[in-house]
Amino acid sequence: MRVVLAGGGSGGSTTPLLAVAEALRRRHPDVELLYIGSDTGPEKALIERADIPFVGISTGKLRRYWSWQNFLDVFRTGASLIQSFGIVRRFQPDALTSAGGFVCVPPALACWFLKVPVHIHQQDVEPGLANRIISPFARRVTVTFEASRDHFPAARTVLTGNPLRPEILNGNPEVARQFFGLEEHVPTVLATGGGTGAVGLNRLVAAAAPYLVDRCQIVHLTGKGKSIDPGFSHGRYHQLEFVVDEMRHLLALADLVISRAGLSTLTELGALCKPAILIPMPDSHQRYNARAFGDVGAAIVLEEKLTTPASLAASVKDLLGDGLNLAAMGFKARAMVKLDAAEQIADEVIRLAQG
Fold first, then answer.
1. Whether the Cβ atoms of residue 130 and residue 105 lie closer than 8 Å to each other
2. Of 65, 123, 148, 274, which one is least surrounded by beta carbons within 10 A?
3. What topology does CATH give the domain 167-334?
4. pLDDT one-digit tens code per residue, 208-261
């Protein structure tokens, strides 16, 4: 059995596919996998670490706003379609699975044209443009939230939850302490905008850090190429661009997480019972994800445009000072996650591949 995994441009659409890939390998140890991703995104490092062959394609971005890059992306998208046809013809897959991201569109269309069954997973509450484009060509759609069913054909849609990499559950706090040089009896706040970073969130966290170092230590992951000058230096503020294996250890150690509201991150936080302050990307689908967690008390949701460094610091201090509330938020986040989602999705992909 041969399966193409397609997606990328960000870690958020890659980590669910890694979880599905692991589940496929558990069921069919002889399965042949091929990942088609962006030749410029952060997913290549994640895929190669999982020992999955990777092929990068040059693809445009699906923007909903005016940009001169839109003109150039017409040609990039055409080139990526040609590349995808060649890759699919050579690999001859039995199925394709994707979890969104603009990179998955050309391979999915190539597979549909070549009569290879296509599966898409909808992570977020609201579908992104890529999944909206692909869904008419998909034989199976899996969704994280019940509310997402309304956007897809009922007969082809299954509620599964969002896939989770099992390794994320095996983090060791002591490894994180030693790796990052952290203090043992000081609360740890992890701030992350994802693999591609988030400039607005980075600025807020860096500016809030001076207000917080007397109360906690901060590990700030900015994203590749998104490092920021905090304007101060302190032994309790640690800034890095990107981590891979160390992430599970950091999450195990963190007492509180400040994050965007991508579903891959939220799934990991929920599985680990981690309370969070969510600052969704302004005017994006992330606000619906954040609302789903915020409405049940699993996270505090802040609007970036209305949040100042001082107010963010105050929210962090309030939460760290209320251990019972932190624990309650963590348990409510756990209730939002289905730990067997990857297994369910793997079953759907296998059914498609076996005809």
1. yes
2. 65
3. Rossmann fold (3.40.50)
4. 999 999 999 999 999 888 888 888 899 999 999 888 889 999 999 999 999 999
